[in-house]
Amino acid sequence: MDELTYEEELEELVSAEDFLDYFDIDYERSVVQVNRLHILQRFHNYLAKEDLPDEEEAIRAVHKKFLQQAYQDFVNSDAQTEKVFKVFHMHEPKTHFVPLSSITVNKAEP
Question: Based on the structure, what is the number of domains in the chain?
Answer without folding.
Answer: 1
